[in-house]
Amino acid sequence: xxxxxYELGGxxxxxxxxxxxxxxxxxxxxxxxxxxxxxxxxxPPKEQLFTALRLTPPEQVRxxxxxxxxxxxxxxxxxxxxxxxxxxxxxxxxxxxxxxxQSDLGxxxxxxxxxxxxxxxxxxxxxxVLTVYDGQAGSHKGWGWEQFTTEILRQTxxxxxxxxxxxxxxAAQTKAALVSPEGSPYPRLVLKSxxxxxxxxxxxxxxxxxxxxxxxxxxxxxxxxxxxxxxGSLRVKD
Length: 238
Prior knowledge:
Blueprint: H1 12-15, H2 22-37, E1 42-43, H3 51-55, E2 63-67, H4 92-105, H5 116-120, E3 123-127, E4 132-133, H6 145-157, E5 163-168, H7 170-173, H8 176-179, E6 188-193, H9 210-220
Parallel strand pairs: 2-3, 2-5, 5-6
Antiparallel strand pairs: 1-4
């Protein structure tokens, strides 16, 4: 299925020209073949691949969280970095995000692992790589997603509103030069830390206090802060 057949929300006009690029066509040919094969399963489900773009249109972006790649167990990934569907057990990385949220802002960890409420407030939850095989973390690294997500971030750099970037982990930090404040005439904040996974959270993620720093920046630039306590959808009851 070519890029033009996916639901890209408000990003459609900006991203469709990529579909004609040989590297992008090769990427989506490979992704489509993987989905069609069906075994091993590919996550997130194809219809949820661009949930982040659908929920957070360009004009609403005020914070971009960049992760690594989707959760690789059945029923977890649904197109938002670090988020899982309502009713799915909160994964370890997200539990650590919630721990840091409580340490930083005193917010009690939510019972649900869905972060649609953040997305609907303008937090673009974007992984560096957007698909993965069942049970095989990092299995779609090098397919071309890295270039595709770079192009998404390139679009955010051009946005006129204040935007904060949270780059969590080495994969995310490959985007640091692209989103640096020096690269945009508009207000920008870039915060880097280790990934919140259990393997690295204690080596720089815990204690990084990203949530209040983002809100301080947004308010200083005349933008509304993110209500980080609202993780569930603002449109439908959790």
